[in-house]
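Subject: Sanity check before I submit

Could someone independently write out the C-alpha cells for this chain? I want to compare against mine line by line before I put it in a report. The sequence has 59 residues.
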Amino acid sequence: MSIETHLAELERRREALKKEIEEELAHPGYDDLHVAELKRRKLQLKDEIARLKGEEEHS
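---
Independent answer below. Compare away.
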C-alpha cells in the first residue's frame, strides 16, 4: 500500500470518527467515557497522519 493510499484511509477513518463523535454529542445523556475514547482514537489517527506526512516529506 502506498503512503498516499494509507493517508487517504486514515483521513477517511478520522472523518468517520468525527461524525460519530458529533452524533454521540447530539444525544442527551451521551456516554462521556465513550466520547473520550472516540476522541482519543481520533487524536491517534491525527498523530499517525502527521507522522506519515513527515516521512513522506523526507523521502
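---
OP: Matches mine. For the report I'm noting this point. The first helix runs from residue 3 to 26.
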